[in-house]
Amino acid sequence: MADAQARPLAFITGASSGIGQALAARFHAAGYDLALVARRTAEVEAWATAQALDANRWRVYGADVAVTDSIVAAGAACIAQQGVPDVVIANAGISIGIDTAQRTDLDVMARLLAVNNVGLAATFHPFVAAMAARGSGRLVGIASVSAIRGLPGHGAYCASKAGVVAYCESLRGELRASGVKVVTLLPGYVDTPLTRGNRYPMPFLLAPEAFAERAFRSIEAGSSYRVIPWQMGLVAKLLRLLPNPLFDRLFQGRGRKRREGEQ
User: Fold this and answer.
1) Digit-coded pLDDT (tens) for 170-199
2) DSSP class of 122
3) How far apart, in whole angstroms, are the C-alpha atoms of residue 98 and residue 150?
């Protein structure tokens, strides 16, 4: 028990694949205990066992981030079983294209916002007061470089990730005097199941492990805002500066993110 109390703890949602798993592996390698959250708990347990992670240093919590009471309960269970985390990473998210002319896509957008925005706030909720009382901790929101400029066919996803940036900025100000850091990470293109179906070029594509290494360093440093890789941040900021007519012309005809059910 003394060893467990001495080790830091990372709470990570979306731990069943992609960025979530890569972050879990990186934090474990750095000596953290893990609280791993996913709907598909069996997959997380199988992955952790296959990676030969120390069985005494991780627990899996089943939760649906789209359901507020579900993810809040997972946070409460983590505190009861493992204590207040040092790092909370709200990584769970979905990425689906929409067409506003289609009625069914409005429901898709509602579900996407429930996961990417409300789910992120609900992930942080159980830990805010406890971290503030302790005077330390890091709350990490995973946004996207897509937050910087809206792209055709990506309306729901871009809106949700812009919302992550704005929400984390607000929360950072609220917690500034508490000792709790709020870190906003904006991944560019990372090779995960979410991106493999994209129908457009993905410059500066990173392996999940490469992203996790850079993200880990940013989280440890308590960076308030970081685009990974930095080259995508530069590209996005340049696009933000383009006059609207030029930007619209440049992206006319670009492949759109797949809508739900599209092959």
Assistant:
1) 999 999 999 999 999 999 988 876 666 665
2) H
3) 13
How many structural domains compose the chain? 1
Cβ atoms within 10 Å, residue 122: 24
Map residue 141 onto helix, strand or coil: strand
Q: Which of 157, 189, 200, 225 is catalytic?
A: 157
In a domain? residue 175: yes
Q: Evaluate whether 188 touches 232 at the Cβ level (below 8 Å).
A: yes
Structural domain includes residue 261: no
Burial of 135 (0-12, 13-18, 19+ CB in 10 A): exposed
Do the domain assignments include residue 258?
A: no
Residue 164: domain span: 2-251
Q: Is residue 262 part of a domain?
A: no
Active site residue 157: yes
CATH label of the domain that carries residue 187: 3.40.50.720
The predicted-structure confidence for 109-150, as pLDDT tens digits, reads as follows 999 999 999 999 999 999 999 999 999 999 999 999 999 888
pLDDT tens for residues 56-100? 999 999 999 999 999 999 999 999 999 999 999 999 999 999 999
Q: How far apart are CA 188 and CA 175, in angstroms?
A: 27
